[in-house]
Amino acid sequence: MIPFPLIIVLIAVLGLLGVGLYGLLAVRNLIKIVIALQILGKSALLALIAAGRASGQVNLGQSLALTFIVADTVVAAIGLALAVRVRRRLGTLDARELGKLRG
Amino acid sequence: MAGYLALAVILVPWLGALAVWWAGDERRLAQHALAIVFALVTAVLSLMLLPVVSAQVVLSLSAGASFGTFTFVLDGLGVFLAIIAATIGTLAVIFSVDYMAGEAQLGRYYSLILLFIGAMIGLVLTGSLLLLFFFWEITAFCSYALISFHNDDPKAVSGGIRALIVTQVGGVGLLAGALAIYSVLGSFQIGGFLDQAEALPPGMLRWMAFGFLLAAAAKSAQVPFHTWLPDAMEAPTPVTALIHAATMVNAGVYLLARFYPAFAPVGGWKVAVVTVGVVSAVLAAVMGLVAVDIKRVLAYSTISQLGYMVYAIGVGGVFASQFHLMSHAVYKALLFLGAGAVAHIIGTRDMRQMGGLGREMPFVRAVFLVGALALAGLPVLNGFWSKELVLEAGLGGGPLWAYIAMLLCAGLTALYTFRMVWMVFYGTRRSEGAVHDAPLAMRLSLVVLALGTLTSWVSAGPFGQMLARSLPFHTLDVASTGQIVLTVLMAWPTWLALAIVALGLSAWWWRERLAKFTSRLRFLARAAAGDFGFAWLDEAIVRTAQGTAEKLSLTQTGQLNWNVLGVVAGLVVVLVFLIWRA
Amino acid sequence: MQILIGCLALGMLVCAVMAIRANRLVVSSLWLAALSALLAVLIYAMGASRVAVIELSVGAGLVTVLLIFVVGIAGDEATGGKPLIPRAVSWGLGLVALILLGWFTVPLVAPSPPSSQPSLVSLLWKDRALDVLIQVVLIFCGVMGILGLLSEAAVATVAGRRRAAQVPSAGTDSEPVMEEGRAQL
């Protein structure tokens, strides 16, 4: 039985984390920021499952991952609703424009 | 049962705050009524705490490993301050019905007052240092919000901010002390700390002792943190009577009294406390002598009398200081409410524009006189007994220079009190316009407080015994009321003090004859009017705080990407720390 | 086995990078869907079959549909513009964070054989019952939030405000819209 190459999975986790963080740092459009958040979420998901696999308790990892999927989806939904609302009221989805206070 | 009572007496005023806010500013009558009802219920509940005074923890709520247990202890020290807060709060609320008759935003006013009453009661009833800090901060916030109540008046707003910043400097001292206790003993319980105070390393105990002294000095407006209190007089008068005379400024004295057994052995602490008390008392008395705003005179008088209480704690007379606290709360609230009545009717607080009002305002003059005589320390009134006890404790347990200074200060107190009464109620009439006596609601509060001033000293004996019974770590010498009366009357220091007070009173009476002497002291008057230069410290603190806040606001760009940068930078710092440690 | 995992990992990284780099939002969403699909396969390969199915249906299905729907409502403008933070800073900081994380976590990975474990269903409902309860609360709150956010959106649209601003008198017309706006806040 070939031992499962967890190192590769870990590198994938770190890679996704990096891409997600870069997205949060560099992206200006709100909806794309939600997408970057989703990528971050997937990296966390992978890490949870990998940890479950590494410790032998796959089911524990699965239950935690399930909780996380629910939370992540709710966050995405609310983030998108916010984006719609912002677009309608303020007319823009750009982070820089939104950072300016309107008197 | 007692636990639920303790919880109720804190939560009822908070519920009242919500109720008044919910009633809305259109239904003014409902707001007045709700405020009075909730305050009254709180006062009754606090009086019901008297039979269950004991040294044990009555209610204990676990708040997780890092916050410890939130405990409530109904001992004498806490219960009596809770009763003062609730009853004087009720009287201030009743007074407000007439004082705030035409004002807008009543909901905000009553909600903040009720919130404050609940927080103050919580502060004195809790046995957990963290919860004490939490309530301390709530009272500071309410004080700020109420001082700046007329938020279109720039003086009021700046007074509120200055009060907040200076008292928060003290709050830092309190938090540092609380965290020090937690780091050494592992819990926030005050009882546990008093029990094991010797177990703390002496350096840390010294830090804590002086940190708490800092917190108490800032909150109780002692030198050098005293400048916020005269500036806080922009608040509506019932607020001043409640917060800045009877309750919040006593929180510092309460802190010192509560932790006295632990800090007394620390070298130099008692001397520091005595010095702070004496300097505040004397300096404030001199400043009160030259002030022309009636509320400012009373503010300086508050600082001076708080100096007496702090001095009493410094010499070991914890009972004397708490008894003086009780008397002072009653007569100072009376004086402030009376001054508020006068200012409300005349329209100004400047005493140079008053005079001869006694003829048209006999009721206010009468009650104000009662309060003033108590402040000066005339026999029969509660101020006399408590001040004599403080002076005797000082003679027995403290340095002689301090005693002499406090004795002379008693004379100064009489002098400025008489000056104030004379300038307002006697002499020639300097203001024009019609003047009427105080309306009904104001009279009600004033008469209750005047009765209290006349009689509260009778409870000295039972009060002392209640304290002795429920404070296991303090050593108090207490006696019955009769014994106290006899001791005070028989002791020669009493008569010495009375002579000095008489000297003070007569100095005003003969002021024309003393004019040559006083003109040479004019430089002192100018220095006193300028706060003896302490204003620069106050200014420096406020300027630093506001300047730093403005500079730091540049980091709040409001842009998402910058915030995420902060998050990632924080992550890097945490990781570096973890790797370096591992 | 290792090749498979390696390919999946590489594919996921490529999809993620393309999702961020894509200019049009719809294309971005599709890359995200691809990422979810590959992730689901990888999770299945690690033995967590149930979560793999859920991730496939939720991540690649639900979220993608949601994204495309919202992009349809909110507009698919070009999402360009210079990043607000200098590129060097974000690259540098990101790399530093990743390297530190890697250094910290890689030595911890030591696979152990699967132990006897309770089934997923019993685990969820007994041991992690609090989690399930919180999830329910979260979903409820999310629904309430979304309803609140989207319900009044029809009243004060951008077009409505533009129309009001064109009316010359500043007194009556623009004020009601402003009042509504304030009330909504």
Written account of the structure:
The complex is a heterotrimer of chains A (103), B (582) and C (185). Chain A has 103 residues and is mainly alpha-helical. In chain A, 82% of the residues lie in helices and 0% in strands. Chain A has a domain at 30-95. Chain A has helices spanning 6-26, 30-55, 58-90, 95-98. Chain B has helices at residues 2-23, 28-47, 76-99, 106-125, 129-147, 154-185, 190-195, 202-219, 228-231, 237-247, 250-263, 269-290, 294-314, 318-346, 362-376, 382-397, 400-425, 440-455, 460-470, 481-490, 492-509, 515-520, 522-529, 535-552, 560-581, and strands spanning 57-62, 69-73. The longest helix of chain B is centred in the first third of the chain and has 32 residues, at 154-185. With 185 residues, chain C is mainly alpha-helical. At the A-C interface, α1, α2 and α3 of A face α1, α2, α3, α4 and α5 of C.
Record the SSE blueprint.
The complex is a heterotrimer of chains A (103), B (582) and C (185).
Chain A: H1 6-26, H2 30-55, H3 58-90, H4 95-98
Helix pairs in contact in A: 1-2, 2-3
Chain B: H1 2-23, H2 28-47, E1 57-62, E2 69-73, H3 76-99, H4 106-125, H5 129-147, H6 154-185, H7 190-195, H8 202-219, H9 228-231, H10 237-247, H11 250-263, H12 269-290, H13 294-314, H14 318-346, H15 362-376, H16 382-397, H17 400-425, H18 440-455, H19 460-470, H20 481-490, H21 492-509, H22 515-520, H23 522-529, H24 535-552, H25 560-581
Antiparallel strand pairs in B: 1-2
Helix pairs in contact in B: 1-2, 1-4, 2-3, 2-4, 3-4, 3-10, 3-14, 3-18, 4-5, 5-6, 6-8, 6-24, 8-11, 10-14, 11-13, 11-14, 12-13, 12-17, 12-23, 13-14, 13-16, 13-17, 14-15, 14-16, 14-18, 15-17, 15-18, 17-21
Chain C: H1 2-21, H2 25-45, H3 49-74, H4 87-105, H5 120-127, H6 129-151, H7 158-166, H8 174-184
